[in-house]
UniProtKB/TrEMBL annotation:
InterPro entries: NLP_P60_dom, Papain-like_cys_pep_sf, PG_Endopeptidase_C40. Residues 224-338 form the NlpC/P60 domain. It comes from Streptomyces griseoloalbus. SUPFAM superfamilies: Cysteine proteinases. This is NlpC/P60 family protein. Residues 1-32 form the signal peptide. It comes from the Bacteria.
Length: 338
């Protein structure tokens, strides 16, 4: 009898089980039944995305506080000009009143009854005294009114100065928050730089990937001459750096780019992305046309300019220049036609 080699049943069963388990696992993963475990790359991307959102929100808050401060400074300057003009009028009246007092002194400061007794023409004296009295009462009343106005303006100036102080304090707090976020971004960049080249490239591709089916057959031409001019300005800024709180021309944050671009077209936009959201007529995303403002996320924390062909021009985040990206790079909250 020939000898036969026996295969241990347990070994064959184990191999079969392993193969079957591998096939089932692969199929389940392909079908999405078994979610893949989070990787350090996934954690890094999530953390960087979160930090970018925080940084952008801090920047827009800073811009809003800065704009409010500028407005209050203009109000205070106007009030100070008014105070200076009224002070000049008060000084003129004081000089006039001083001349009258000097004339009275030079006349000897007689008691009115004695002056009337020794006057050569009592009727003429009475007429002049009556006129003098009316002038003095009128000027005194006007001086009183001006002093009241001066006090009111001084109070307004003090209140405005108080508001400026509060806003400066708020702006310092926002700036401090910004510095904190910048430190976190530095950490995230160092972490990104520690990733292998393939994972770093995958992260960059993911940040620029589009969501499908966002745009319909909307028009491809700008809706107005000013939109066309603003788009041309935005294109001229391609490649310039993202700079905190900047609105050009050397660098931009997101709302600074759109504000500057429309300023080149003679249109004054508000400073922040939240305010720019309401700077015109809102249209559906499917009808977006070049030059329209595309506002992102529910907090309207980011804004770009639609450039056509499913692309926007925007200032993305620190370290990334003004560039084209897909319009669906993040959730769109509204589209505004200026």
């Amino acid at each position: 009898m020939g000898s036969h080699r026996r295969i241990a049943p347990s070994s064959g069963s184990d191999r079969s089980a392993v193969v079957a388990l591998g096939l089932l696992s692969a199929a389940a993963t392909a079908l999405g039944a078994v979610p893949a475990a989070a990787t350090p790359y996934d954690d890094t991307r999530a953390e960087v995305d979160r930090l970018y959102r925080e940084a952008e929100k801090a920047t827009e808050a800073y811009n809003e506080a800065d704009e409010r401060c500028d407005g209050l400074r203009r109000q205070i300057a106007t009030a100070q000009d008014g105070i200076a003009r009224q002070q000049e009028r008060v000084n003129t009246m004081r000089e006039s009143l001083g001349s009258l007092a000097g004339a009275q002194y030079r006349s000897g400061g007689y008691d009115p009854s004695l002056a009337l007794l020794f006057a050569d023409d009592p009727e003429d004296y009475l007429e002049k005294a009556s006129v003098l009295d009316r002038i003095t009462v009128h000027q005194a009343g006007e001086l009183k009114r001006l002093r009241g106005a001066l006090r009111s303006l001084a109070q307004d100036r003090a209140e405005a100065a108080g508001r400026i102080g509060a806003l400066e304090k708020s702006r310092r707090a926002v700036a401090a928050h910004k510095r904190t976020v910048e430190r976190k971004l530095g950490e995230a960049r160092r972490l990104l730089n520690s990733l292998p080249d393939g994972e770093r490239a995958a992260w960059d591709r993911a940040t620029r990937s589009a969501r499908p089916d966002l745009l319909g057959p909307g028009g491809t031409a700008p809706p107005s001459a000013r939109a066309a001019a603003a788009l041309a300005a935005a294109r001229s800024a391609l490649g310039r750096p993202y700079v905190w709180g900047a609105n050009g021309p050397a660098g931009f944050d997101c709302s600074g780019l759109t504000q500057w671009s429309y300023a080149q077209a003679g249109v004054a936009l508000p400073r922040t992305s939240q305010a720019q959201r309401y700077a015109g007529r809102q249209v559906p995303l499917s009808e977006a046309r070049p030059g329209d403002l595309v506002v992102y996320r529910s907090d309207a924390g980011h804004v770009g300019m639609y450039a056509g062909n499913g692309q926007v021009i925007h200032a993305p985040y620190p370290g990334a220049p003004v560039r084209y990206d897909p319009v669906g790079m993040m959730p769109v909250s509204s589209v505004t036609r200026v």
